[in-house]
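Revision sheet: structure tokens.
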Amino acid sequence: MEHLKYLNVLTLTFRSASELEKASRFNKFFSCAIEHVSLLDFRDSRSLNILALANLQNLYSIKCTNCMDLKEVKIESNIVEGARYFHSFRFVGLTYCKQMRDVSWVIFAPHLEKLLIRGCNSLEEIISEEKLDEVTESKANTNLFSRLEELDLCRLPKMKTIYYHALPFPQLKKISIVKCPMLKKLLLNSNSAKGQRLIIKGEKGWWKDVEWEDESTRTAFLPSFKPQ
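Predicted:
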């Protein structure tokens, strides 16, 4: 323990839900040092309670990779009560979590700067309206994605919606959407990303079929498109 006093940043990888639960029992020293957590190759659980991460007050990023059986991260009452603990999240990455259907728990990460989701074949939406309705308005993040700078979506064949209405996105700089054929609507309106030089990357065929909220929104964002 003597040498651990020089430890500044710690990255941890968990391979099962039972391992993740141990994070809730870390002492304060370790909890403050952990900035990056990776959930890798989960095979033992279809649902996950991330409340175990609530004590990691400096947790900057969380990556979930190849968790083939994981279908959901539950928004339970105890997670709602601990919503303040996820203010440190800046990056969330989900790759090849093929059973995941939504990522609604990110509503409790109000300072999120980058959201990356790739190869999640069952993902239909990012924020589920049904799950959002289960959370009281006083506890949910009313400034959803207000710090988001980059949204990266790739190889999501069932993705239909990001959110059920347009958002202001005051910090948004880049959207990348590739191989998401069912995603026809962007959560943008003519007031979104004001003052930002937003770049939207995607395939030409997808861009041609985007359904805009109105003509003024289409006109505002046509110059933003850069073919992938």
